[in-house]
Each structure stands twice: as structure tokens, then as C-alpha cells.
Amino acid sequence: MNSILYGVGNKFIQTNTFERNDLHNLDYTNQIRIRIELQGSDFTCPQYWDRQSNSYRTTKSITGTYEITTEIDDSELKSGMQPSMFGMNKHYNIFYINFHNIKDEIKTQRTSWGNLTSFLAKHIKSIVDTDTSMAAKKEDYENEVELATDKVLKNSQLSAFIDKIKENYSTNLRNNSCEVKFGLPDYEDIFLQMIFKVGLNGDNANLIPIDHFGDGYISMFVMAVIQAIAESNTDDRCLFLFEEPESFLHENHQEYFYKTVLCNLAEKGHQVIYTTHSDRMVDIFNTKSIIRIELEEQDKQTVVKYNNVGEFSPTMPTNSNGQEIISFANFNSYIKSVEPNLNKILFSRKVVLVEGPNDILAYKIAIEREVEKAHGDKKYAETYLSFLNIAFVVHHGKATAYLLIELCKHFGLDYFVINDWDFETDFVTDLANFQDENTLKQDNLYLKDGADDRSSNSKAMITTNWKLLNNSGIDKIHFNIPKLERVLGYQSDDKDSLGILNTVQKLIYYTETFLPTKLKEFLELDKLTNLTENVVETANSEVDTDELPF
């Protein structure tokens, strides 16, 4: 969002106004480079000579590609924009609202609310100037205001005080004859200096200034102002930039707000760009409107993980074969597995896709114990997955797992799949070698179970497992053979979570068949172990080579 604000000229990078010394890891030498492409309508301007058309012109446009860069020159931060758009952005309606700060901004009349009210004042003035019925009432207003003011001030202490101001002012101007009046603003200005007051639940008697309300009510009021501007300002298209509009809204109201406000603005031809951490503020059935960014842990910078923004289209997200990942044809799977986990899919750094709740229980306990063993801190172990932004997602069936895998691929989200193999023998590697389903179905691995013909149920399970392997890749999937309970040594088939819990907690060591190396690497447990070993080696080295003189 900051890059967009700098790109459209809403913010400027200067020595005395730059709010952040550096946007990338606080590195003094790491400078900013922002490239932005803009399109805008023409606006009128004084006549000038246009070199490109080799003619005089009286219109300009912000349309073009701009590059903003910074550099350190003699210990001073300097910036530049090529080409310059100086003064051009004021001809366009660009509104930025940070909903975290809006309450303070209303009180101080500054920043985003100040910009909005400035435009609102111009808009109100335009309405007043073009409304013939209001213009006809101007003389009546002025006469009645003057009579009312004189009546209130007559023989009052305030009137005497104003006379003293007039007398002193006249003396200061060398006895210049002057007139000083104290009253309401002129007719043209009265509407610009009014303040908004609100009465809730039908209370018209006790109206309260809007800045006295809570953040949620204020946010809704600000959006009501924006909606009114957008609805009445049909000739001009606006650019709306919103910072986390879901702030201070309850979950159900977030979805209502998204559909009735944000979507409505876009449908009226305005461009709406906003940041969000809420899955209620996105449409998973139209992912072309989503840009997904993520903090890269190693380089400590934000990277784009998904950006497929094009012309607005109701098309469902598709896989590499052009098939729809999510559609109303598989709405049942969507409601069961995707919708409840949408927040995790969109906002996690990594996800582990598992078959059922017992898988989550077993693996979370195992991971927690492995982290505590390596790090020695129980609280850190309990929050390890949250700290790394790794989430577990239950797919409740292998058929739904395909859907979640494709969705993770679509959004550029790193994933790992854990499933039951459902066969006593391990032929995972052999199954992964088949390039296509037809070749598989002609092979004895599919046709025969030893000397006997495979049952149709057995063939279906092989096909399902092959599809999982093919979709995920053998490096991103682990099968518990034949199933989780047997791998853990829990002999019953009752799926009892308490029994699974007790079994996992009794294990001293987790074998490769349950917690494989590739899963440890995905969960970054190997980095944690290496880090601990390096710390121990360093400490031992310091003790062994202690050459201190005391």
C-alpha cells in the first residue's frame, strides 16, 4: 500500500517528511525503487508546448509509467521521480483511508480524513452553487441571520466586548474607521463549516458528534460519506485506497461490508484497492481480484506469492489444465473443507493438509515435543507453529485433498500432505513412477494382489493414492502405512482421540514412518536442531579455549 501511495503522489519521499528511513530491513544502503503504471483521463490546463506531438496543447493526463527512487547523497536522503507528475494528481479523486487511525484523524482534521473532508467541502459547495432552489433562499437566509444575531447580541456583554475589539483595532490602524462584526459564516461558507452529528436508534433529540462514537461506528460513517460521494459524483471515477477496512467490524459485518460497500463502489466504475487479513473480505470464486503477499523469513522482505490480476471476470480459479478448482459443481466439498479453512489458506505461510482431527492431534503433540527437545522452552514449543505461521488444515477425505492441493498451488502457498495409505504393503515409490493413469491401469500393480485379481475397491484406492501422489509430488506427501493408528502402535480402530493422545505422549522417539525427514524439513525442525547444535558447539569451544587472565 505504501508503494501505491508513493506512486500516485499521495506520499512524498523527502529528507524532512519521509516517515520511514528505509522500507527494507532497516538497511541504510538499501534504497527504494518503485515503478508504477497509471491511467487517467485528460484534464484542462494552461496552453503548453508538447514535444511528443510537436504542438500546443491545453490538456494533460497522468497516464504513463513513473519510477520513484531514493539515494544517499552526502549522508542526506534524496528522492526523484521520472518523469515528474508534480501537481497532476490533484486533478484526480484519490482517497486513502487508514481505518486504524481514522478516529484520531477526525478529531484533528488531518491526513486521510482531512483530505476526504476537503473534497467533501468542495463537493458540498458544488451542490450549493448549482442548486437553484438554494440560491433563491440566499437573501432570506442573510436577512434572518442578521436579525437573529442582532437580537441575541443586543445589550449583551458579548456585544460590549466586540465593541472593545473594534475600538482597539481602529486605534492600532491609526484611527482608521473600520467595522467589526461577529456572527455566523457567509451563506456560501456555512455548509462547509458544519459538523456531522448522529443519533442512533431513532434518537433525534440527543445528537452526538461523530468523533464521540466508537471505532466501528466511525468506520461505517466514513464509508457512508465515501459511498455518497461515489454515488453522486457520476462524472468522475475515483481511486479508493483502504487500509484494513475490516478493522473494528465483527466477522459477519465484514462480509456485509465487502459486498454492499466495496463491491458496490467497484461496480459503479471506481477502482478499489485495499489490504486485508480477513477471508470475509475476499471472493474465493473470483481470485483474479486478489494479490497475495507474504513476508519472506530468510530475506526479511515482502514477496508476491500470487498475482493474477487481469480484467474483471467471474471465472473460477483454474488449475494448470484449465479445469475449475472451485465451482458450484463441487460446492459440497467447498463447504466442508475449503470455506472453514479459507483464512488459513490465504493468510498462512505454509499449510499441512491432513485427513482428520486425530492427525492434527498426533502431529501437533509430536511437533511440540520435538521443538521443546531441541529448544528447551515449553512455551516456545507450544507456539512454534503459530510463530512460523504454519497451519494445519483437515480435508476429511482424499477427494477433497485434491481440491485443497490445487488451491494451494493456485495461491503459491507451500503445502505438505499427510494421508493414510490404506494398504498393508508399501509400494509408494513404485506407484509414484507411473506418469499417467492409463499406464497404471494396465500394470499388474493395479490389476493383481499377489496371485489374485484386485477387487474394484482396492483398484479405486490405488487410483486415489496415485492421484494424490501425482497432484502433490512425492516430496510433498507422506503416507502412514497402513494408517495413523497402526504407525503409532494404537491397535484399536475406534478412532478414540483420548487413546491416540495417550499413545503419542508415551512415545519416546518418533520414527521415520510417522515423522519423516521431509516433513521435519518442511516444518523447519531441522533448522531448529542445527541452530541448537551450533550454539552448544560455540559454548563448548569458548569453554575449551578459555584464555582469560583471571
TrEMBL record:
Residues 112-282 form the Endonuclease GajA/Old nuclease/RecF-like AAA domain. Residues 346-422 form the OLD protein-like TOPRIM domain. Gene3D superfamilies: P-loop containing nucleotide triphosphate hydrolases. InterPro entries: AAA_GajA/Old/RecF-like, P-loop_NTPase, TOPRIM_OLD. The keyword Nuclease applies. Keywords: Endonuclease, Hydrolase, Nuclease. One of its GO terms (biological process) is DNA synthesis involved in DNA repair. GO terms for molecular function: endonuclease activity. This is ATP-dependent endonuclease of the OLD family-like protein. It comes from Chlorobium chlorochromatii (strain CaD3).
